Structures are given as C-alpha cells and as structure tokens.
C-alpha cells in the first residue's frame, strides 16, 4: 500500500467533510443550483494555475474517445447531478445527519467498482467497507431520522459520486488537476446557469465570494487529492479513506452550527478507524500480464512498472508526464490502480 497516497485520501476526506456544514450556512442565501454551481466553479478556478503551468500535448491528442466518454459521464453524474441532490437533501435535514449519510458513497463506489471496473477487494477489504458502513449506521441510530426524502436525495448523490469516482480513477490522459478543472468549469457553469434561470436574480457579492472560496479549497482540493489517491490505490480503497469525511463534517457542525455529538458517534469513529486499518492491511497478489499502454499520471520509478527514459522531462522522485509501458508479466502484490485493471479468474494468493 502506498502510504503517501493514503494520506492524500484522508486529507481529501477532511476537506470535503467540512464543506457540508459550511454549505448549510451558505444555503441561507443561495439556492441549491446556485451554490452547486459556485462550489464547482471555485474548484475549477483553483486548478487553473496548475493546468496552465506546464505545456502539454493538445487535449484533442491526449484525450481519446474512451477517456472523453469517462470524463463526460463523470462531469454529468458527479459534477452536475450529485451536488444538487446533496444540497437539496441538506436544505431540509441536519448537517450532521447528511454528513453521516454520505458514507453511502463508500458502498456505491465499492459495488460499482467491483461489478463494472475490475476493482478487487479481499476479505479484509470487504470487512473494511462493511465497518465503514456500520459506523454510519451507528451514528444514524443515535441521531434519529431527519426524513425519508432527504436521505433518498443524499443516497442518490452518493450513487452519482460512486460512478464518478470509478470513472475518474481510470482517466489516464489527464492529470488530476486537469480533470478537476474541466469538471468544475463545465458542471459549475451548467448549474450556475440553471440557478440564474430558476432564481432570476444575482446573489450578494459576499455570498458569491464565500461560495467560490469554499469550492476552491474544499471541493477543488478534495477532488484533485482524491483522484490522485484513487489512481494509485484504487477507487474502492480511496473511498474507504474518504468515508472518514463525514466525521470531519460532524466536528465542523459542532463548531459552526452548535450541533451536539453523542456517545454513539464516538463509538462510530472507533469503528471507522478499525475499518481503515483493515483496508490498509488488505493484500492481493497473483501472476498477471500488462499489455502495451501509453498514458499520463503521477508516478515514481521504484514500483516495478516505470523504467522509461527521462530525456527532457522531470526526473524528480514523484513526477507526471506522458510515458509508455511494454508487455510484461510478473507476480507481485498490487491494488486496482491504473496498471492493474485485469480480470481475476486466476487463483488468488
């Protein structure tokens, strides 16, 4: 397991978690579509310096049809539909309850990854998934129901983000910053336009600035860090780490909204920590073959898969550039990252 990318996943969770109660405050002066649009526009704007800092091949050259389709579906599901469903649920429910329901994103990502994207989890991994869900159930039991309709709206948002997570983990022709930029720009513009049509008035300048800032830090930073982690440890594993986000949200709800924490929530935090530990000890190894592949992503040269030449590009320990892979067959422990999306009919060790 790559522990540096594990840390990225946890930081991503913390940023996204605190965004929920802070968004609850902004909903006092913004509609759901307006806030969803501004949050993602802020995320896109935050990534602009990283996108323009380096000269790369034109997008039409790097983004093939398969990756373009992945990006389009991820933008529609995770950038347009998901945030609006979340904010619709948040408008009529307690921020702490909504934060806890967001654990459903873990189940959605794991299930979609397993069924559709060759994402593998061993016994420890599935216990980790189950423990993270149990943590959410414990806290929900202590909180009581905030309403069937809000819970269904948040569950729908989690399914959208589960699909988004699995797809963006497979996009290997864009950097995480580029993916976040396009998602923020396209989804943010669309939801902002819908918000203008629905409300037919501009919100106060201070609210716009606050929403853009929240989106830049908590959405832009969170999305980019999550994609970087998911590409290296797999979407399902990254999502288990991301499941800690609701607990950061609960803490922010206490600070910003004055909501109370219960002993049941404390017990749930302990269960979640155990779940993360189970996921981190998951091991999976068998003989497998890598087919020829050319792509771009963050990598280093001590992982058995990157031995290419660095003429004219960065040779720092961790770097990102376009590179190719030749056919190779070997046996080692691995996770379902960009290089290990093979089927698993082979006997597992």
Structure explained in plain terms:
This protein has 349 residues and is mainly alpha-helical. The chain folds into 2 domains: 3-285, no CATH class; 287-333, no CATH class. Helices cover 66% and strands 7% of the residues. It contains 13 helices and 4 strands. The protein has helices spanning 3-26, 32-52, 59-62, 65-91, 95-101, 104-116, 123-143, 148-168, 176-199, 205-233, 235-242, 245-257, 263-280, and strands at residues 285-290, 293-299, 319-325, 328-333. The strands form 2 sheets. The protein has a two-stranded antiparallel sheet. Helix 5 packs antiparallel against helix 12 (245-257). The longest helix has 29 residues, at 205-233. It is globular, with a radius of gyration of 20 Å. The protein starts with a helix and ends in a 16-residue tail after the last strand.
Kindly report the average pLDDT value: 80
Radius of gyration: 20 Å
- Sketch the topology as an H/E string, one letter per element: HHHHHHHHHHHHHEEEE
User: In total, how many domains does the architecture comprise?
Assistant: 2
Q: What amount of the residues lies in strands?
A: 5-15%
Which helices and strands, and how do they pair?
Elements: H1 3-26, H2 32-52, H3 59-62, H4 65-91, H5 95-101, H6 104-116, H7 123-143, H8 148-168, H9 176-199, H10 205-233, H11 235-242, H12 245-257, H13 263-280, E1 285-290, E2 293-299, E3 319-325, E4 328-333
Antiparallel strand pairs: 1-4, 2-3
């Amino acid at each position: 397991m790559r522990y540096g990318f594990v840390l990225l996943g946890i930081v991503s969770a913390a940023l996204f978690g605190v965004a929920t109660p802070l968004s609850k405050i902004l909903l006092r002066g913004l509609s759901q579509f307006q806030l969803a649009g501004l949050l993602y526009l802020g995320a896109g704007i935050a990534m602009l310096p990283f996108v323009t800092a380096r000269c790369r091949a034109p997008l039409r050259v790097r983004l093939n049809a398969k990756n373009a389709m992945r990006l389009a579906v991820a933008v529609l599901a995770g950038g347009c539909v998901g945030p609006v469903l979340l904010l619709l649920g948040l408008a009529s429910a307690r921020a702490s309850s909504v934060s806890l329901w967001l654990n459903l994103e873990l189940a959605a990502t794991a299930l979609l990854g397993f069924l559709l994207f060759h994402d593998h989890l061993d016994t420890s991994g599935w216990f980790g998934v189950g423990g993270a869900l149990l943590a959410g159930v414990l806290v929900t039991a202590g909180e009581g129901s905030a309403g069937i309709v809000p819970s269904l709206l948040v569950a729908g948002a989690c399914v959208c983000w589960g699909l988004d997570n699995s797809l963006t983990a497979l996009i290997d022709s864009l950097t995480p910053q580029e993916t976040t930029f396009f998602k923020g720009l396209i989804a943010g513009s669309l939801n902002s336009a819908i918000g203008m049509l629905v409300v037919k008035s501009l919100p106060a300048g201070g609210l716009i600035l606050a929403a853009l800032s929240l989106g830049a830090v908590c959405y832009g930073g969170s999305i980019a860090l999550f994609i970087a982690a998911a590409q290296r440890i797999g979407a399902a594993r990254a999502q288990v780490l991301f499941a800690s986000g609701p607990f950061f949200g609960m803490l922010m709800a206490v600070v910003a909204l004055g909501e109370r924490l219960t002993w049941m929530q404390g017990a749930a935090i302990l269960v979640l920590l155990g779940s993360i530990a189970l996921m981190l000890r998951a091991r999976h190894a068998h003989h497998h073959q890598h087919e020829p592949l050319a792509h771009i992503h963050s990598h280093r040269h001590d992982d058995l898969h990157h031995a290419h030449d660095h003429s004219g590009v960065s040779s720092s320990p961790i770097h990102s550039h376009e590179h190719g892979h030749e056919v190779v067959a070997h046996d080692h422990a691995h996770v379902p990252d960009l290089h290990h999306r093979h089927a698993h009919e082979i006997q597992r060790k």
